[in-house]
Amino acid sequence: MKIKELTNYLESIAPLSYQESYDNSGLIVGNADDEITKALISLDCTESVVDEAIAKGCDIIISHHPIVFKGLKKFNNQNYVERTVIKAIKNNIALYAIHTNLDNVVGGVSSKIADKLDLQAPAILSPKSGLLKKLIVYVPRTDVETVRQALFDAGAGHVGNYDQCSYNSAGYGTFRPLDGAEPAIGQVGSQERVEETRIEVIYPAQLERAIVVALLSSHPYEEVAHHIVTLDNTSHYVGSGIIGNLPIPMSEVDFLAYLKEKLKLNVIRYTQFLGKEISRVAVCGGAGGFLLEHAKRSGADVYVTADYKYHEFFDAEGQLVIADIGHFESEQFTQELLFDIIRKKFANFALLITETDTNPIKYYS
């Protein structure tokens, strides 16, 4: 298949518009129209991973972390980023990253941790807002079905487990075509009164271009009266971290043992025990210090994440236990997650998980 068939599917699950402003998810190296036959999945994209892709005949690497985070001005093998990119280009291997956009969806990176810990009733820890927009348009009664269906076909009106959602109210519109107009209804110079329906539909912000194109191409009027509003609603499906409940409460020491076993950890850094049972657990893959206050407000007994600095551990302030399990360790199951996501759609596509250990941190015991 072509690269864009694979990436379009991945971006239907984790749209690029959901990534953080500092991120660089998407197709980093390659042509979207190129054919691919075998993919290698990894957490990181390094020279060793590219070597593995070459040896195994893979023509695309799908990684969680982008190899390029910021602009490169030179490609002269001066660092591992440049060397990795050059090697991929020389060997015609495409590089694709699905990073914070996969972090920010239900069923993404943090959800995978929650699944491993068997957390019950999982929910987004810090939901995002401003991701939805509402289109309001006025349509002559005779064309309502056509316009509404065109909007649905473009992706409008999908709310949770429901689609083709709209609100419709009857009224009438007035207008007078001026010289130069070519009205679908009425005559130049004469005021018209037309029975119209006001259609309101909600849609994801990233679909706006497709929605507007569908509207203008299906609406009979030469000038289409409509307006678009950005909604402040928070999303139940997009945001950072996951909060959930353990099937059975356990002591703090038992929870750390449980955490170590379930996530296959070498070491856990944690704050002082508070002498109470662990029942409610917040998790965030990768560097999750920015969600600590959300974890506290959500009533978490423990917050499982990574990349905590020494002084940041004090921020627990006796309200919960912080458990830092390591960046790689918190995201290692993302490879398994991506494999399952792709396999579900493309059952016959050759797909491999890397055998290269890309964790730059080693432990001595």
TrEMBL record:
Pfam family, one: DUF34_NIF3
Domain of life: Bacteria
Keywords: Metal-binding
Any one cellular-component term (Gene Ontology): cytoplasm
Record Gene3D superfamilies: 3.30.70.120, NIF3 (NGG1p interacting factor 3)-like
Signal peptide (residue range): none
Example GO molecular function: metal ion binding
Binding locations of a divalent metal cation 1: 65, 103, 327, 331
Binding residues for a divalent metal cation 2: 64
Stored InterPro entries: DUF34/NIF3 (IPR002678), DUF34/NIF3_bac (IPR017221), DUF34/NIF3_sf (IPR036069), N-reg_PII/ATP_PRibTrfase_C (IPR015867)
Subunit structure: Homohexamer.
Similarity comment text for this entry: Belongs to the GTP cyclohydrolase I type 2/NIF3 family.
Protein name: GTP cyclohydrolase 1 type 2 homolog
